[in-house]
Structures are given as C-alpha cells and as structure tokens.
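Fold it.
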Amino acid sequence: MKIMKDSFKKLTAGQTPVLIDFHADWCGPCKMLSPILKQVKEDLGDAVKIIKIDVDKNQAIASKYQVRGVPTMLLFKDKKLLWRQSGVLQKDEIVRVIESFK
C-alpha cells in the first residue's frame, strides 16, 4: 500500500502515540521485529497505533524521515516525531518508550 503525505499526517495526528515501523519484505531483522510489535500491541491495546510502512513502496516518506536502514521505528504524537530507533528492540524496551510519551 502506498501512503500519501496527507494520509501520513492524518495517521500521526492525535493524542494516541503512533509507532511507525519502516520495513521491507526482503529484510531479515524486519521479520524478527514483526511478532515483537504484535506483542507490544497486545500489551498496550488502544494506547498505541502501530503502522507498518514498506520502504520500497513508500520511498518518498522513507526519504523525508531519512530512513536509511530497516527496520526503523518512529514514534509520533500530535504529528510530532518523539523518538526513532533503527534495528530490533525487545518488547519491554518498546513498551517502555511508548509509555514514556503517554
């Protein structure tokens, strides 16, 4: 799915933190991160939105946020970028980061 600039702004608006996972189908570490993010969502429920964006299909957005490697996670709230991290983190670390911005 291709995401346009306007839709991206809508996705990252609001009081609920939005974790964007920039990934690629060919990326091994991205495949490791996917089940971890499912656990994060199970733990936090409606307290977070988690959105996966394929960098190959959304190069303009990946470029705008200077995503050079995958996986890269960005955390937004009220359209503001609050945190970014490249690589795989464990569930507890991701949950702690999200909860620190509630």
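Helices lie at 5-11, 28-44, 59-64, 91-100.
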